[in-house]
Design brief:
The complex is a heterodimer of chains A (66) and B (469).
Chain A lengths: L10 H11 L5 H20 L20
Chain B lengths: L10 H9 L5 H19 L2 E4 L1 H16 L11 E5 L26 H8 L3 E6 L32 H8 L5 E6 L5 H7 L2 E4 L19 E6 L2 H11 L29 E4 L10 H16 L3 E4 L5 H19 L1 H7 L5 H11 L3 H21 L5 E5 L21 H7 L3 H4 L4 E8 L5 E8 L4 H13 L12
Parallel strand pairs in B: 2-3, 2-4, 7-8, 7-9
Antiparallel strand pairs in B: 1-3, 4-6, 5-6, 5-10, 9-11, 10-11
The chains are: A mainly alpha (66), B alpha/beta (469).
């Protein structure tokens, strides 16, 4: 899906997801968080400019030795 | 020496006097506790002062030294611990109301190591709530910058840096997930050292991000930091990220010269939006390093901006996991910043987190490639000097607030687990400290400390005292 086709994060969507997650977020709080979540999603989309096809995630503890 | 003057010595200096029995640990500890009583209502470096326990430790150190059982450079020396590092039986607030009554039933590994070295723990130092920046709600009173009481210290190891700067302890252990040791050190005019990931145990430390949390010292000199590293470094099977590698003598690594050393500087990312006074101090520091024999080379990190995003996502996701139960059950007890960041992290998907970890892989490769051509990197530790409490954070680059932008110079090196230090490199006209950051390859901690030490010895920035008396 192209970035432009993605649905924007609204306070209503934020509230619905918060309820699913069990977070104590009312409508006013959802309205505060929605634009910040959208900014996060935009930042995540921006990472798509990197070629990640053959890149594995960094391990949590990269240099572990016994 | 007047006992009050003891407080103004460095850790190394007071250690020598204790080791030679010219002063007693009890006298030193009393001097520090008296100064805390006199100054900390103004500075706010401590959440908890462990006065009686500290004096008992000092008496024990005194007995041991009198009996010829001297343990080494930290024996009898008063230090503080960030209030997320466990001390058995002492409350560990993590700077939050949520954990205000939490009392651990065991010491952190670094606490045990400091005790084994004979250090005197005088208290638990203030921090940003749950070690999260770039701003905070101080639930236990604000920590003020000793160089200007109207300014913040930066965080999250705020009390450690302010306490060392204000001579309320000789050293402190902080934690650094995105610059939380180096940032407050640079804004408070002291040394802050983040060692290689895995060199110092995180066991018994309230986590923020498992893969990016580092424990390290805040001190007045680089030698002091090396002495603390000698006490706290080492493999710990209790920490799944701990490295089972030989522990060098960090103090011995300080000796040598900079002849032929290759220092990389990135004039794009690290000069973008840089405060002019910080830039001038940084350029002077580079000249000093060159005069000592180092060669300066231009380097570039094309993925730096996306690495910043990856750092933020990893931190938010891991913090949301760390505090999952707390944010569901006690969200209203969180301060505004900590609550927002924990809630935002809760909205991330597994694929978002893994994408950030894949970007981290790319940045680790990019960092390794750049470091093939240089021995260390030099950057300003922060793009601007300390902000005032009562002003909106100044814009450093037109996009990010200064305290957030301050992190951007430091957090990339948490992604790669590289050793990094902030050492004082000047002051603004208004008298605010400026820090120089030196970064090395993972496990080349000794080289980073050596470069910082040699630079420090060419200057007197670390000898200046803040105007608090």
């Amino acid at each position: 899906m192209a970035k432009s086709d993605k649905k924007k994060i609204t306070p209503e969507i934020t509230k619905q997801i918060a309820d699913v997650l069990g977070l104590d977020i009312d409508e006013a709080r959802a309205a505060e968080l929605a634009p910040q979540i959208q900014a996060l999603r935009d930042g995540i989309d921006a990472m798509d400019e990197l070629e990640l096809t053959d890149v594995e995630p960094a391990p949590l503890f990269p240099m572990r030795q016994e | 020496m007047d006992e009050r003057e003891l407080c103004f010595l460095s850790l190394s200096e007071v250690s020598q006097l204790i080791g030679s029995r010219e002063v007693s640990p009890v006298a030193v500890t009393r001097a520090i506790l008296d100064r805390i009583a006199e100054k900390d209502a103004t500075i706010g470096a401590y959440v908890t002062v462990m006065g009686e326990a500290a004096l008992e430790s000092a008496r024990e150190a005194e007995r041991e030294i009198e009996q010829g059982r001297y343990r080494g450079p930290l024996h009898g020396v008063p230090v503080s611990l960030k209030d997320i590092i466990y001390v058995k039986g002492v409350r560990n607030t993590a700077g939050s109301k949520v954990m205000a009554d939490f009392v651990p039933d065991h010491d952190a590994t670094v606490t045990q190591k400091l005790r084994s070295a004979g250090a005197v723990i005088v208290g638990k130092a203030q921090l940003y709530e749950f070690a999260m920046g770039p701003k905070t709600t101080y639930h236990f009173g604000p920590t003020r910058n000793p160089w200007d009481l109207n300014r913040v210290t930066s965080g999250s190891s705020s009390g450690g840096a302010a306490g060392v700067s204000a001579f309320l302890c000789y050293g402190s252990l902080g934690t650094d997930t995105g610059g939380s040791i180096r940032g407050p050190a640079s804004w408070c005019g002291v040394v802050g050292y983040k060692p290689t990931y895995g060199v110092v145990s995180r066991y018994g430390v309230t986590p923020l991000s498992w893969c990016m949390d580092h424990v390290g010292p805040i001190t007045r000199t680089v030698r002091d930091a090396a002495l603390m590293m000698n006490a706290i470094a080492g493999y710990d099977p209790e920490d799944p990220g701990s490295l089972n590698v030989p522990v060098p003598d960090y103090a011995a690594a300080l000796e040598g010269d900079l002849g032929g050393l290759r220092i990389g500087i990135d004039t794009e990312f690290f000069f973008d939006g840089l405060n002019p006074e910080v830039e001038a101090a940084f350029r002077q520091a580079l000249q000093a390093l060159q005069s000592a024999g180092a060669n300066i080379r231009e380097v570039s990190f094309p993925s730096m901006d996306l690495a910043q995003s990856a750092h933020s996502l990893i931190l938010l996701a891991e913090a949301a996991s760390v505090h999952e139960e707390r944010i569901r059950g006690s969200a209203k007890l969180f301060g505004a910043n900590a609550r927002t960041r924990t809630e935002l992290g809760s909205f991330l998907m597994a694929t978002d987190y893994l994408k950030a970890q894949r970007v981290r892989t790319l940045f680790q490769k990019e960092f390794a490639q750049v470091m093939k051509g240089v021995d260390v990197l030099a950057t300003p530790a922060s793009p601007a000097p300390a902000s005032r409490f009562d002003e909106p954070p100044p814009r450093a680059d037109g996009k990010q607030a200064a305290r957030s932008a301050a992190n951007r110079f430091r957090r990339p090196f948490n992604l790669v687990g590289a050793p990094a230090i902030s050492v004082p490199c000047g002051f603004t006209e208004a008298g605010l400290p400026i820090g120089l950051q030196i970064v090395g390859r993972p496990l080349e901690d000794g080289l980073v400390l050596k470069v910082a030490h040699i630079y420090e010895q060419m200057t007197d920035w670390h000898r200046r005292r803040p105007p608090i008396g």
